[in-house]
Amino acid sequence: MTFPTPTPTPTPSQTQRPARPQITLAVVRREQLSPHLVRIVLGGDEFDAFQANDSTDKYVKIAFAAPGELPVTRTYTVREVDPVARTLSIDFVVHGDEGLAGPWAAAAEPGDLLTFAGPGAGYAPDPAADWHLFAGDQSVLPAIASALAACPALLAASRSWR
Length: 162
Known about the structure:
The chain has 162 residues and is of the alpha+beta class. It is 19% helix and 32% strand. It has a domain at 20-124: Elongation Factor Tu (Ef-tu), domain 3.
């Protein structure tokens, strides 16, 4: 009888994620998509530091800091990257004055700066799959929309199914 060889436990240096660049971009415009959903379009000199990848769940770690306080990080999915316009879009759910990111997005104006690290990613739908199931609340809509955009045949099928 043979037994499988145990897989060695990776050391911390083998499991560390690569460092992501810290990028600061300016608000180009704010779009009110619905009463509780705001799209922030960002651009600027550091756009080229954003290394887009083929994953549909590109995310960034945004640093929010109140004056005199340490930054707090929140993770957001990048809704769209436009290399021609040199912009990227991030959608924010706004629940009134609660939280950090929502109130910032609701009040954002062109020229405001946003600093983030990224992108990270890890998922892209298999375009050859017969079907996909995407579920979530409002905060996951950007990731679902990006995944659907990556599968045009899937979008056409879902429209014909309704």
